Each structure stands twice: as C-alpha cells, then as structure tokens.
Amino acid sequence: MPRSSNQKLKLLRIYNYLLEYTDGEHTVTAADIIKELERYGIPAERKSIYSDLEALADMGVDVQKSADGWFIGEREFDLPELKLLVDAVQSSKFITRKKSGELIKKLEKLTSRHQAVELQRQVFVANRVKSMNESIYYTVDAINNAINADRQLSFRYFDRDAQKNKVYRHGGGILTVSPWAFVLDGENYYMVAYDSAADTVKHYRIDKMDSASTSGKSRMGGQLFEDFDAALYARRMFGMYAGNEYMVTLACKNRLAGVMLDRFGEGTIFVKASPEWLEFNVRVAVSPNFYGWLACFGGDCTIKSPSSVVDGFRKYIGGIAAAYEVSDK
After folding, report:
1. Of 197, 212, 228, which residue is a domain's last?
2. 12: CB partners within 8 A, 6+ apart
3. Among candidate residues 228, 252, 277, the one where a domain is terminated
4. What is the CATH number of the domain that holds 189?
5. Percent of the chain scored above 70 by pLDDT?
C-alpha cells in the first residue's frame, strides 16, 4: 500500500481516538479505527492496526482488549478523581463562574466523551457566592512568578461598594510586598507576605488584588517564614482577620473538646479543671472575628486570661447589647 502523506500521524490519530471515545464500558474495533483514520486520509489495514495498538502498549499506554474491542484502561486521572476535582472547582468561591466552566471543560478532556457527561454535574453549596474578579488566575500566576524568582510583588488592593464597583485602598496606590505563601481558609484564597514598610507579616485576599506584577526588588522577611505553617497561621487568624497575637487560656465544657481540636489542631493540650470543664492554652490573633466565634458558644467556652483579652470580650458583647437597647423615647 502506498504511504499517505498523513501516515506519520497514524499512531497519534489512533491514540487520540482511543482517549476520546473509549473507556472500561465503551470499546472500539479495528474496523472502527480504520474508519476513523479514513476521515484524515490515512489508509490502513486490520493487521497494521493490531501492530499500532501493540506499539502504543509498548510506549506505556494502557491499551486493553475485551470481547467487544479495544479501550484505554488506566488513565492519568480516574473518573472518581475527576469528579472530586470538578466538585472542588464548582464549590470554590474564589473561582468565578466563567473560570469554573473553563476549568471543568479542560478536566472533561482528561477522560472519554462518555464519562465526561458524568462530570457535567451541579454541586450545590449553601449560600456560596462566586468571586467577581475574573483576573484571579493571572494574579495567582504573578504571585507564583514572584515567589519562584525571589522577587517582591506590586499590586493594587480593593473592596467593593454597594454598586459593586471597585474601591481601591490606599487611594489606589501600588502596594509592594514580599510574597512567601498561599493560604486557603474557608471560602477564600490568600497570599501571605512580608510588608517591609510595616515590618510585619500580612495576608491579602487574592480575589481583591489586581494589576499584580513582579518587582525588580529581592524579597525580604525570609527568616520569618523558615518554619511557616500555613494551617497553623489560618487557625490563629480567625476568618483571616488580623489582630495582635496573644497566648490565651480558654475554658470549655467537655462536650466541646472535639470542636476545639478542629479549630486549634491535634496539638491542643487539655487540662481537667473540673468534672465538666477543660482548660487549654492557644495562640490566637485577637480580633472581632475571634470574639464572634467565642460568642457562638454562649457561656460554654470562656476566656480565663489574659485580663486584657477578657476585657476586650466584655466590651465586644457590651457593644452588641447596646445596639439592641430599647429607647424610652
């Protein structure tokens, strides 16, 4: 048989065809493959198809044979793994709806057309609001580039007003910091960085950043991140709300031990204060978010020390009570 000008693409065409149309429940025959190759002007005989399939197997492709035909067995990602990734993308607040759709389309290409249908699923997460910032991918890329190049990052930081317009902080000025880590806390994605101007570690919500670019300046503050633990950092920063850090002694009812372990980690050491109460020490960033979290437990979790944090909590709940006082007028 004379060789076609497309003959060099034959093996690649077969490989792509198997990837797209076969899986453990869907097979193709040699005749199907020959028909597919004809679409690209590539003539083939049954015997050569068998040789090509063997060549793919020799290259490490998991080409399998069943009674009905040939199919790709093991892939880079199994279907349950892809479903998990799709669920994660759909339920992530910091990824916009548009970007979620684009990512899922790409994930669908990692399996057969038949199984891709199973990835077109809707994940419902209570009160989940998607980010409005379409540039988040480029911001993440800019942060990674800065970290890999050991350079500082410049960007602008914003909030949104009632009309959903961006309101830039610092008068719209450019911030320049040294990025060192990413932290995912709850529904939001943060960059943790060293701010040399304030000589402190800060974090920034990535979906509130734009115009991010690598600076020509070398990063600073590396000594503060030598033993950085992202999970520990997130636990200390309640809702990633910054505040002064204190070693706080808390007391809670026995039934809340599991809740405290979830919040502060398995390293939490409890001391039996009474038959019904436990005490433990934790380092936290004291903020309104911390006080709000504590208030959820009523009197079943209390602050024992230091006195300044106790006084702060009294003022916090006092302010809430004052807002609900009934006027005599």
Report:
1. 228
2. none
3. 228
4. 2.30.30
5. 91
Alpha-carbon torsion (198, 200, 204, 209), positive or negative: positive
For 55, other C-beta atoms within 10 Å of its C-beta total 14
Per-residue model confidence (pLDDT) at position 132: 63
Is the pLDDT reported for residue 124 higher than 60?
A: no
With a cut of 70, say whether residue 126 has pLDDT above it. no
212 and 165 assigned to the same domain: yes
- Position 328, amino acid: D
Extended strands (E) in the chain: 63-65, 70-72, 151-160, 166-168, 175-185, 188-195, 200-205, 209-218, 244-253, 271-272, 277-286, 301-305
In a domain, 206, yes or no: yes
Express each pLDDT in 229-277 by its tens digit: 887 787 777 565 677 889 999 999 999 998 888 788 778 899 999 999 9
Residues 141 and 216 in one domain: yes
**Residues 89, 115 share a domain:** yes
pTM over 0.85: no
Is residue 22 within 8 A of residue 55, CB to CB? The reply is no
Q: For the chain, give me the number of helices (H) and strands (E)? A: 11, 12
Domain boundaries, position 313:
236-323
Mean pLDDT in the chain? Answer: 88
Do 106 and 59 belong to one domain? no
Strand segments (E) across 19-81? 63-65, 70-72
Containing 43, the helix (H) or strand (E) segment is: none
Tally of domains within the chain: 4
